[in-house]
Amino acid sequence: MPKVGMPKIRKPQLVNATMAVIGKVGLHGASIALISREAGVSTGIINHYFGGKQGLLEETMRVILRQHSDTVKSALKVLPADAHQQRINAIIDANFIGFQTKSKVTKTWLAFWSYSMHDSQLKRLQRVNEKRLISHLRLELKALLPLERANIVAAGIAALIDGIWLRGALNPTGIDANAARIIINDYLKLQLKNSQN
Fold it and tell me: The HTH tetR-type domain covers which part of the protein (predicted)?
């Protein structure tokens, strides 16, 4: 029987080990044996806390999504409710700074992204993330654009975020946050200007 309080230590330890192993060998090569070795625990601990590899993979994705959501919420919390363009920029920045840009996290995101096409639970988690991003953007854009345009521009910004993030994740030099901001803000300015004409 694990000691009281150990889940708070073991679960993050196993999630971090999962990301490290995925970074080294990819999702398909990330076996329970390699993950438990990386974490310095027995393979039985993974089954005990997560019910097996699938449960651990899902929890790893949830941790990444929670961390991302917390980054967005923290960035928005400090901005006035009517500072819509600043809030859009904060949402954009949250996708290209901190935890989301760590090598092990980008590799894990990328692996999950491709794997979610074949796994219903991971696909559901990916859809939640996508809907959350578009919802945040749409909320701010509705104050600047008519609703129909706000929906289109929100989808456009989300596509730019995904595309730039994907290219950066595949690039050996990583994600260029400044270039991302410039590209997306250029698109946003153009859309806002067009709506005034």
Answer: 8-68
